[in-house]
Every structure is written in C-alpha cells, then in structure tokens.
Design a protein that fits this description.
Length: 221
C-alpha cells in the first residue's frame, strides 16, 4: 500500500481545453493546441535525453512560431504567443479533481505533485480551487533538471518526500509518465477519463481508473 500519492499536473489535474480557445482568439485553428502541446513535450523529452534541460514556459513559447507559421493572425506574432501562454495561468481543474483529491487526503495519504511545468502554476491552480492545503509539497522537474519520464525526476520526488519509491504511487493521464514511474519503482494509476486504449509497449499501470475519486476506492479495496 503506498503512503504517498504523486500527481502529474498538466492534463491530469488541469483541464487544457481552454487553451484551444486561446488559439482561436488570435485567429488560429483550435486543433493546433493539441499539436502545440505534443510538440512542447517532444522537445522537452529530446533535450532531457541529450542531457540538457529547459523550462516548460520557454519551450512552450519557443515552439509556437513554428506551429503558427502560415496562419493569418489577428495580431503580431509576439502578442499572439503572449496571449496563448497566458492561458496557463487561468486553467481550471477537471470536474473530478476536488472530490478525488479530498477523498485521498481524508483517507490519510500524503499528497504531492510532480510536474514538468512550474510550481507557480500548480500553486495558483490549487489556490483558486481551494485545495492547496491538501498537498504536502508541490514539486517541479525544474528543480532537478530532468523532465519526466527521466528516472531522476521520480528519484527527486522520493528524496523530497523522504520515502522509498516503492511506497509512492504516481497518478497521470499520460502513459509515458506511467511507464517512467513504473520503471523507477513506483506504483502507478492511469487516469483514463476518455476510455482510451493503453499502449502495449509501455509498462502496465497498477491501477486503471476512469475518474479520480475511483482511486481512493481502489486503494481502500
């Protein structure tokens, strides 16, 4: 039984849907939002694999000129990039998050986050929702210099929590994050809100849940 539940933040807890509206605001097709986020992650993974590091926000801004190339914008490029990136400060939580986090907290689990983004975004996200006090620590890979799914990111979380990785469980919507945590020795819970298929080339999750409150029930069982 894990004692520490570690949450991914982007897409797992935060709803990135409104970012698509930010693209529409500047005159770009909404579907480019998904391409942009995937490109951001790709570049972060590539830099980590090469032994380097870069901040999430810098990569987010850096890939946008290529994503927006050929699009007729309603403002200059720099203003469009600023408008899209500003959307991260106002993202909402998914509807199931408050109940799920509260159930785990009330069941006695230690709750922390481990994000490829910044702790500032996490702080603002949870403060607006009134659940900041549920989390013991808000951790970011920016403080270790290795993006998830690099092993060092999960080892860093274990050190900060002063616990063994075998007593930690990572919750994420991203199979690549589940795989990385599993290879680092953690238990895992894949949050599958959209009834997707889990890629067979990744290590299988310990738990599969459709909504976050289901995790507290699964752990209790």
């Amino acid at each position: 039984m894990p004692s520490v539940v570690v949450f991914d933040v982007n897409e797992t807890l935060s709803d990135l849907g409104p970012i698509a509206s930010r693209f529409a605001d500047v005159g770009a097709p909404e579907h480019l939002a998904k391409l942009w986020f995937a490109s951001l992650l790709r570049d972060g993974f590539a830099i980590t694999a090469a032994g380097g590091t870069e901040r999430f926000a810098a990569l987010g801004s850096g890939v946008l000129p290529g994503i927006l190339a050929g699009v007729t914008l309603d403002r200059d490029l720099d203003a469009a990039i600023e408008h899209i990136m500003a959307g991260f400060r106002d993202l909402p939580l998914h509807p199931d998050v408050v109940a799920g986090v509260t159930a785990l907290h009330d069941a006695g689990f230690r709750l922390v986050t481990l994000t490829n983004g910044s702790t500032e975004i996490s702080e603002n996200l949870f403060a607006r929702a009134g659940i900041r006090d549920r989390f013991e620590k808000l951790l970011s890979v920016e403080d270790v210099g290795t993006w998830k799914p690099g092993r060092a990111a999960y080892e860093y979380a274990a050190r900060k929590c002063d616990t063994d990785r075998k007593l930690m469980l990572l919750v994420a919507v991203h199979p690549w994050d589940i795989d990385g945590a599993a290879r680092a020795g953690m238990a895992t819970a894949w949050l599958n809100r959209n009834n997707a298929q889990y890629p067979p080339h990744f290590r299988a999750p310990t738990y599969i849940i459709g909504q976050l409150p289901d995790l507290a029930k699964a752990l209790a069982a």
